[in-house]
Design goal:
Layout lengths: L6 E5 L5 H10 L5 E5 L11 H17 L4 E4 L2 H15 L4 E4 L1 H11 L4 E6 L1 H6 L1 H9 L4 E6 L3 H6 L6 H11 L9 E5 L7 H8 L4 E3 L2 H14 L12 E5 L4 H11 L5 E3 L5
Parallel strand pairs: 1-2, 1-3, 2-9, 3-4, 5-6, 5-7, 7-8, 9-10
Amino acid sequence: MNSTSPIGLFDSGIGGLTVAKAVRNLLPNEDIIYFGDTAHLPYGDKSATAIQSYSIKIANFLLEHQCKALLIACNSASAAAFDLVKMYVGSKALTLNVIDPAVGYVCQHYSAQKVGLIGTVQTVNSGVYARKITEKSCGVALSSLATKLLVPMIEEGFFDNSISESIINNYLNDPALQNIQALILGCTHYPLIKTQIEAFYKGKVKVIDSSVVVAEDLKKHLEQQKILNTKEKQGTLRVYVSDYTHSFEESTKIFFGESIKLEFHKLWE
């Protein structure tokens, strides 16, 4: 691993861009390669086996691009494929996920309190958040709800409008999310609707967007491995997709404030 090598991130679509943006803001010197598996989105309703297959293919692609760290910027893939990807990558690169940093943050700040979690069917049904919180013995009582419609809604550009507000409010009124002190956004797509979620709770519930927490965790690992890029010039950003979508291209402009050329890579060749 070389300090000047790029950091690789991947997700099924635009959601992981929230993490990529946080990484770029915190580590502006780092070169970033992002892979959006738009041909197979959303991952949340796929089987664990399918997600594992996609993730290994993408991990191999990022290794071919000499990435020093692979960050699975997707909760569904982190839940279903992290252990397998980490084993596959071995010592070739750091392998990180978005779940462990979020769990660490919740246990540190909400010990012995009730915390809600919204995520995809894959993430919620895996029970990975509950298991990891239990392993830390921090006393957090986790109540989870699968919110199946949110990712396709966001991918289609339906956020910050009356349609998304209706769907979001319907989910948040679910009995599973009553009397919580905080809510984990257990999908990297969900920060795009964080404002609407916060509006629903009117400041009474802390809405946890783990993107910044994940970026800080990545920086810590890079420092520990002594592979943090200390060059002074701005790092580059390359974005690959497995299928072109207009909404993805528009989202990159919104996220990064500039037009970014998407590079096409067919995942199955």
